[in-house]
Amino acid sequence: MKSRSSAWRPPAGRRTRPSPFWSVTPAFPEAGSTWVRWGRTMEEEPFKASSDHRNLGQASGHDGLPDGGIQATLSQPGLSTQLSEVRGSSDQNHGTGHETRGDSQQGLLEDGDKSISQRDKDSSKPEDLDQHTLLDLEPPRSSTQGIWLAELDSESGNEHFSESLSSTLEQAGFRLYLAEQQKKLPLPLRELMETEALEILTKALKSYRSKIGENHFLTQELQRSVEELQRRKRLLWKSQ
Amino acid sequence: MSCFVWDLLQDNPVIWQRGVNISCQSTWLKCTEMKVKEASFLWYLYLDKIYCLLSARNVKALLEYFHLLDVHHQNTLNDVLFYHFLSYVTNLKSRQIRMVFDMLDYNAVGEIGFEEFYLLVCILLSHQNNLEEQFMYCHSRHVFRLLDINGEQRIGPTNFRMYRFLFNIRKEHLKEFFYGFGLTDERRLNYKEFKIYTIFANDKLKEKQRRETEKQERRKKFKSQIKNTVYQVAVIRRFWNKKIGR
Question: What is the chain B residue with the closest CA to A37?
Answer without folding.
Answer: B44
